């Protein structure tokens, strides 16, 4: 086999591998369309974050606007602090917005739901790094069952 | 006493083999890059890469298809057949792609490398090269080593891509999972850096180990027909064991912490 033909075949092999990598990147991991834009940070304190994880989505009415960046414990009052990484294009949320930890479906993954509040003043938007005051914690099934049993006993 | 002597002898032999293997690696890799060896490397990429394509594509397609078929029968009981996409994609990208490619590569290309180099040694071609002041490590070993290290990650990527398409053929076209959810749930679950790149890194490590074992076993073989057959067997056995053992270590390092 002459070396010209070998070079062509090896070139085709490399091109095939490159095409496979591009297919994996674009079609399997969907890299081109998400997570590369500019972002800013919001923080929120919860009493209980349940099963929330780093990289869980942040949604407004089902639309993903960002992801959970970091979860830590406040040094002073020992409550969980969740850092939310929000896309730059969603930077007009009012300060009266509230966040809650929700579950998709009955047994699905947990995510952060952001409920935009009323805009009282043009300048009342959430600024990068600001804490969202109004938070609702995750529902913990055991607590719910405990409350239910407790209220039954009172009847 | 005899038992201790045997233990000592085998330890020394093992260490000496390790030393020779390291010497071969240093001799082949630590050198001024020689442009005239690039055509040799391309020829070897044809031998170990292009000629392995058929077995990689066929086994990738069938493994993806059988994964989809098996996962579907379990997932459909829980109404979770949308999770078929991430199930197939993550198993292929993280584990099966790199590992099965490495095992097939050891059987298809590694054994051929060992036999070729072993026969070169038996027919004293390597000694003749040295007589002509050509370093066989640079001329024979280095192109084969580089060709293996470059080719196997590409083969693993092709394997995973073909496997995911094969999973789509069975899952979507045959079993009736919705095509949109197959891809979109997969896209939500697969991370480029976390899953695809870690798979490629795994595959690079396997490529290095398998090719190193193959060329070393050939170069170090006893130059008889029996010695070459033993060396070929050892290549396949040792590289398979090394790949499976290393896979556990790499998986624990990459995905084990969360």
From TrEMBL, chain A:
Signal peptide: none annotated. Pfam families: MlaD. InterPro entries: ABC_MlaD, Mce/MlaD, MlaD_Phospholipid_Transporter. It comes from the Bacteria. Residues 39-117 form the Mce/MlaD domain. NCBIfam families: OM_asym_MlaD. This is Outer membrane lipid asymmetry maintenance protein MlaD.
UniProtKB/TrEMBL annotation, chain B:
Signal peptide: none annotated. It is found in: Cell inner membrane. The keyword Cell membrane applies. The keyword Nucleus does not apply. Keywords: Cell inner membrane, Cell membrane, Membrane, Transmembrane, Transmembrane helix, Transport. It holds the Pfam family MlaE. The chain crosses the membrane at residues 52-76, 141-165, 196-215, 236-255. It comes from the Bacteria. It is a multi-pass membrane protein. Part of the ABC transporter complex MlaFEDB, which is involved in a phospholipid transport pathway that maintains lipid asymmetry in the outer membrane by retrograde trafficking of phospholipids from the outer membrane to the inner membrane. Probably responsible for the translocation of the substrate across the membrane. Belongs to the MlaE permease family. NCBIfam families: MlaE family lipid ABC transporter permease subunit (TIGR00056), perm_MlaE_1 (NF033619). The complex is composed of two ATP-binding proteins (MlaF), two transmembrane proteins (MlaE), two cytoplasmic solute-binding proteins (MlaB) and six periplasmic solute-binding proteins (MlaD). This is Intermembrane phospholipid transport system permease protein MlaE. The gene is mlaE.
